[in-house]
Design a protein that fits this description.
By secondary structure, the chain is α+β, with helices and mostly antiparallel strands. The chain is built from nine helices and ten strands. The chain has two domains: 183 residues, Ribosomal Protein S5, domain 2, CATH 3.30.230.10; 121 residues, Alpha-Beta Plaits, CATH 3.30.70. Helix 1 packs parallel to helix 2 and helix 6 packs across helix 7. The longest helix is centred in the middle third of the chain and has 17 residues.
Amino acid sequence: MNTGPRHARVEALAKINLALNVLHKRTDGYHELRTVFQTISLGDTLEIEFTPSRRTRIELVSRVDIPDNLVARAARSVMDAIRATGTVRLRLVKRIPMGAGLGGGSSDAAAVLLALPVLAGGRIPADQLIGLAAGLGSDVPFFLVGGTAAGIGRGTEVYPLPDHPAFPGMLVAPPIHVSTAEAYRGLGRKLTSVVPPNIMNNFQSFAWSGGLGEPGKGTPASPGNDFEESVFRLHPRLKSLKARLSRIGAAPVMMTGSGSALFGLFRGRNDLEKALPLFQEETVFRFSLVTRARYRRAWMRRLAAHIEGEIWPPQSRYLKTKTTG
């Protein structure tokens, strides 16, 4: 039996929200959402090493101090689920801005859920994996899917949608902290089961139409991001940045999540490169949309030495030699 360390380096990609509607507050304290998630090429790097041993120890190294880090919590949930013991060493390099609505922490957690069972020689059925993801955070289940997908409920119920081409985009991430709780309060959504039909109809129309159309040439009627109105009242600079992105030809332009990052999509690389110098005073990132096929190929490539076949979620080739507690 191989008792040496098994190692993988994976990329945890960010997301943007191509649409985000908040319907009402639920009896469980969460809000009912309708959103369209989209993976983008900006990502964190996560190195994961597993060594079988009699006891479980989880070590996380990161230059960013994140209280109650989802990465460590995800690792513990995996080890419990597969009933394995061992030393798990995690090294996280952050590139995704934190607290900007880009899902960086959620993507890091999902990366552990996908990679650690493979390295540890365990198997978590897809339905159980989704449950673990939902228990860690509302955005985490999406990163088990990737590409373009609709999220409903509190965002944890995820359904793949047809993918968009790899359109280029610009992400503007100003140093503004947006309180998620404050953003929700600003919406004024109450405890009710009544859903305004115009919100639902607009969202369905957007999803059915394939959403984006062709960036920079006008887009199908988008339901937008409901948080923008309340967040822009608190942070007028974000509204100004959105207007600037629109003026230079980006379309659509939208805040992602509850903020504070904004994105704009462009027809081609040349349009993007012309726009970048106009935002030199801001923190900006180039990105492209990442399809579900590209997302999964990247995972298969990163885990190639440790997986069996091309099954999704990735399946470990060490299943017969796992260490159980």
